[in-house]
From TrEMBL:
Source organism of this protein record: hydrocarbon metagenome
Enzyme type, top EC level: hydrolase
Keyword Hydrolase in record: yes
Hydrolase keyword on record: yes
EC number: 3.6.3.14
Name listed for the protein in its UniProt record: V-type atp synthase subunit e
């Protein structure tokens, strides 16, 4: 075999090997590119999904916070309205003393408290401006049991009385403020229910 033939054969073999290597490399590169593209797509999809989830979570958080804020605003508004209702009630009670009906109301409060205290003797305490009405009640009542006395105490109240037993061990506070306070929880519940029904139950 001549030198030229050997060189040509080597060149042909080399070219074939190079072609084979190139084809293999291109195939591997194509596979790698496909794998990279697939991985990139997965990464992109995961990013999109993660981003969508993040957006959905943020939207949900915003709505939840807005709902909480709205409820808090409504709660404060209701509390303010309830305070206003009780303030109006206080003002209304303050005017009762100036009405013609007050002596009869005071008499019923005295009778009610006296019955609750019981015993043979009770002591009434009232605002000084009501002492004359209390004395009139005692005079009109006569000598019926129990014996009723009036203390010299000047009770700071919009109206009503405090009745104590003769020993002082039993007392019934029948002032306007105390009776309103006793009804407060029930009134707050009723007002809150009314206000809730008027605002869609939020």
């Amino acid at each position: 075999m001549s030198r030229e033939t050997i060189i040509r054969r080597i060149r042909q073999d080399a070219e074939a090997e190079v072609l084979a290597l190139m084809e293999s490399a291109q195939e591997e590169a194509g596979t790698a590119r496909a794998a990279a593209a697939a991985e990139a797509e997965q990464v992109r999809e995961r990013a999109v999904i993660a981003g969508k989830k993040a957006v959905d979570l943020e939207i949900a958080r915003i709505y939840a916070q807005a709902n909480l804020d709205a409820r808090e605003i409504l709660r404060h508004a209701r509390e303010e309205m309830i305070r206003e209702c009780f303030h109006a009630a206080d003002q209304e009670l303050a005017r009762v003393r100036e009405t013609a009906a007050y002596p009869a109301i005071l008499g019923r409060l005295i009778s009610n408290a006296t019955e609750q205290v019981g015993g043979n003797q009770v002591v009434l305490s009232a605002a000084r401006r009501d002492h004359a009405l209390v004395r009139e009640y005692i005079r009109a009542r006569g000598a019926s049991s129990p014996e009723i006395r009036i203390s010299g105490e000047d009770v700071a109240t919009l109206g009503g009385v405090i009745v104590r037993s003769g020993t002082g061990h039993v007392a019934v506070n029948n002032t306007f403020e105390e009776r309103l306070g006793q009804m407060r929880n029930e009134l707050v519940f009723e007002l809150a229910r009314f206000l809730s029904s008027g605002s869609g139950g939020a």
